DNA sequence: CGGGATCGCGTGAACGCTAACATTTCGAGA
DNA sequence: TCTCGAAATGTTAGCGTTCACGCGATCCCG
């Protein structure tokens, strides 16, 4: 147990000159850089003739480091190809600079675009993005997904889960981590950013009514999706307000196939002259069904969709639809997250994004009867 | 240095009874669980009357821990709601249980589906997935994306970047981390899993030739995409082999709009009777253009697409196309990654997935002239 | 010219885990 | 009953950061 004053250079792996004072080491001094394992702050410090703490200060842009030493450290970092270990940093600080995104089927245009917007915005803010997609849409699955992310020590979780049941699942969730719901239920008790579905549906329905149609039929989305609810309500309210009949809504599962099936049923009803379909894929299927049954669009029936996917302008005929700016939604979701992270306070803010009607050739004036 | 037999309970933050021997603590013994900060292994150990190391052993399923103590530890974990800190684990082991995915525009159907397949498979294997999308498609951007992921200490990187330039960008990349290319260039020097584009294009072209068309025109994808090259080659070779003329290929950017523009040009050429379009979106635009110019499909012109997106069956007319199983591609990409991770050896394996022609109504026999 | 504030930097201890080794326990055979 | 070795558990030292200090050197002002 006797310390004999062993010099500090006694550590193993002493492959870097412990040059103190003005660095006068030339390239020749430095042994085989490339055989080194990833250098740590200590290595950089030794190379620059300072302590690891000074390296940390330089890296974090802390004040009170002499320009001269800063330059020396920076040079060492450059020379050694040092890259900070964010795992260690995360352990020490308790912050991982990573955001979790829980998402339902990223194959769908909406969620995929939203995710894309989130990822780009997150990167701009210096955050990594870790994703987990839901295996099913029940409450347990949502909680498990969030749990996984929490285990991974993400700094916050953004939910792209536009399900009514999601709001409930979140209710019970421990709020020890910032959450944001995107395209979610406004009744949730966490911040939400979403497109105004009710208003979008109103625009679509009013557009058709303004064209002279007596009433407007509706093909709704799956019942547990918040979008379905909003669009259904917007449609119904608008009809009611206009004093028009409210026909029984059909419903699909967002797929073109389900729209096709709805179209088959509608094509048999002679008094149908206008249909508002809850998304563009279903509208595509509906167009197909109408065409197969010899019902002309827009000559016999006008059709309006929702989303404005990039293909909508090339349907036959080009689809009148309601555009949602998914990228903007994603970016706003991230903004809300950053705000919570920066202020350290849970917010319950709501951001509502406007939608926009894009008139194309699938809707036209009703034939005077 | 004299040990006076201080009982082991001397540590700070002794909020849990250090009951040794058979745990006889009742619920009343345990002070305010909910006010606790996240418990660590030490806390669990103290609660169970063992050392933190035993907790670690239980958690890692290590052998040699008595069933009785294991049960006690498990109970403590349950009771305290302990969750292992994977950040600390990552720091200690050097493995993060996280895989990085570099992807181009996740808004596109192909990459999105592939990503989805990867994520699900990764989760099944116990890996997290961290994504970064490319801001642009140049070499520097790819390297930066991989660099970000490496900084994040992912265990491996899967690239969903089907660009020719990607292969080059990877060439120089340090191989100190397992890589897998999905939908990538077979010439890359890392493992690749991809759909056989050449063969798929061959199937499409042969299908049209078999229907009696003299030759087949082609609308190719962007030049820097590997898919474009494969499909172009498959098309050209098949025509050449059949002794058919090889007309100059048009090209688009995968978008329906670019397909529309190609369609406008083709519709003015009276001798065009068959077109193979490099993806379904462009085919949609092409169908639209042909329809606008009064060219019937398939009566005047037969059209075959590529991908078989879910909407293709509902185009007007329903599109004959070549189906790619993106999910399978993603899963195989992950499998290759896991193999590298498990064996610890860099592989250069190639997995080629078959495609399948899906005949629908957009292609028909050529009119006898 | 002296004394306290400030600057610039270093030291040691976390963070929560695993790896390697040390130590205790326990059962079986002599 | 003692011994020995394997089984079961504990101890210590990292992993690479950051945080909270501490301590000389420098500076300013009376």
Structure commentary:
Chain A folds into 3 domains: 12-83, Orthogonal Bundle (434 Repressor (Amino-terminal Domain)), CATH 1.10.260.40; 94-195 and 326-355, 3-Layer(aba) Sandwich (Rossmann fold), CATH 3.40.50.2300; 197-323, Rossmann fold (3-Layer(aba) Sandwich). In chain A, 40% of the residues lie in helices and 13% in strands. Chain A contains 12 helices and 12 strands. Chains A and B meet through helix 4, helix 5, strand 2, helix 6 and helix 10 of A and helix 4, helix 5, strand 2, helix 6 and helix 10 of B. Strand 2 of chain A pairs antiparallel with strand 2 of chain B.
List key phrases describing it:
12 helices; 369 residues; 40% helix; alpha/beta; six-stranded parallel sheet; Rossmann fold; disordered N terminus; four-stranded parallel sheet; 434 Repressor (Amino-terminal Domain); DNA-binding; homodimer
State the helix count of chain A: 12
Number of domains of chain A: 3
- The CATH topology of the largest domain in chain A comes to Rossmann fold
* CATH class descriptor of the largest domain in chain A: Alpha Beta
Number of strand elements of chain A: 12
- Most extensive chain interface and residues per partner: A-B, 51 and 51 residues
Structure classification of chain A: alpha/beta
CATH superfamily of the largest domain in chain A: Response regulator
Layout of secondary structure:
Two copies of one chain form a homodimer.
Chain A (H helix, E strand, L loop, with lengths): L40 H8 L3 H8 L7 H14 L5 H8 L4 E6 L5 H16 L3 E6 L5 H13 L4 E5 L3 H8 L7 E4 L9 E4 L1 H14 L6 E4 L5 H16 L8 E2 L4 H12 L6 E4 L2 H13 L9 E3 L16 E3 L2 H18 L6 E4 L2 E3 L11
Parallel strand pairs in A: 1-2, 1-3, 3-4, 4-5, 5-11, 6-7, 6-8, 8-9
Antiparallel strand pairs in A: 10-12
Helix pairs in contact in A: 1-2, 1-3, 5-12, 6-7, 8-9, 10-11
The structure holds a DNA duplex (30 and 30 nucleotides).
């Amino acid at each position: 147990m006797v310390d004999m004053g062993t010099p500090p250079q006694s550590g193993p792996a002493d492959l870097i000159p412990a040059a103190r004072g003005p660095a006068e080491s030339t390239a020749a001094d430095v042994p085989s850089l490339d055989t080194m394992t990833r250098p740590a702050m200590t290595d950089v410090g030794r190379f620059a003739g300072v302590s690891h703490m000074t390296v940390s200060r330089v890296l974090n842009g802390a004040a009170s480091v002499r320009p001269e030493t800063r330059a020396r450290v920076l040079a060492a970092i450059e020379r050694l190809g040092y890259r900070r270990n964010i795992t260690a940093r995360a352990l020490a600080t308790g912050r991982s600079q990573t955001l979790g995104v829980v998402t339902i089927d990223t194959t769908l245009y909406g969620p995929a675009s939203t995710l894309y917007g989130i990822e780009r915005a997150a990167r701009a803010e210096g955050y990594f993005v870790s994703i987990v997609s839901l295996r099913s849409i029940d409450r347990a699955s949502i909680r498990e997904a969030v749990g996984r992310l929490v285990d991974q020590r993400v700094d916050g979780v953004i939910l792209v889960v536009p399900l009514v049941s999601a709001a409930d699942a979140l209710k019970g969730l421990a709020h020890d981590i910032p959450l944001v719901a995107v395209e979610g239920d406004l009744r949730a008790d966490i911040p939400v950013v979403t497109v105004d579905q009710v208003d979008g549906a109103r625009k679509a329905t009013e557009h058709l009514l303004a064209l002279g149609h007596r009433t407007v039929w509706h093909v709704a989305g799956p019942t547990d999706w918040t979008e379905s609810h909003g669009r259904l309500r917007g449609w119904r309210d608008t009809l009611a307000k206009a004093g028009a009949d409210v026909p029984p809504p059909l419903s699909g599962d967002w797929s073109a196939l389900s729209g096709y099936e709805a179209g088959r049923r509608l094509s048999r009803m002679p008094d149908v002259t206008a249909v508002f379909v809850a998304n563009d894929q279903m509208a595509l299927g509906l167009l197909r069904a109408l065409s197969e049954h010899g019902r002309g669009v827009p000559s016999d029936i006008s059709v309006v969709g929702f989303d404005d996917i990039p293909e909508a302008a090339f349907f036959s005929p080009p689809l009148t639809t309601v555009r949602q700016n998914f990228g903007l939604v994603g970016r706003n979701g991230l903004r809300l997250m950053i705000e919570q992270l920066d202020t350290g306070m849970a917010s319950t803010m709501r951001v509502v994004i406007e939608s926009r009607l894009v008139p194309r050739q699938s809707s036209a004036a009703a034939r005077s009867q």
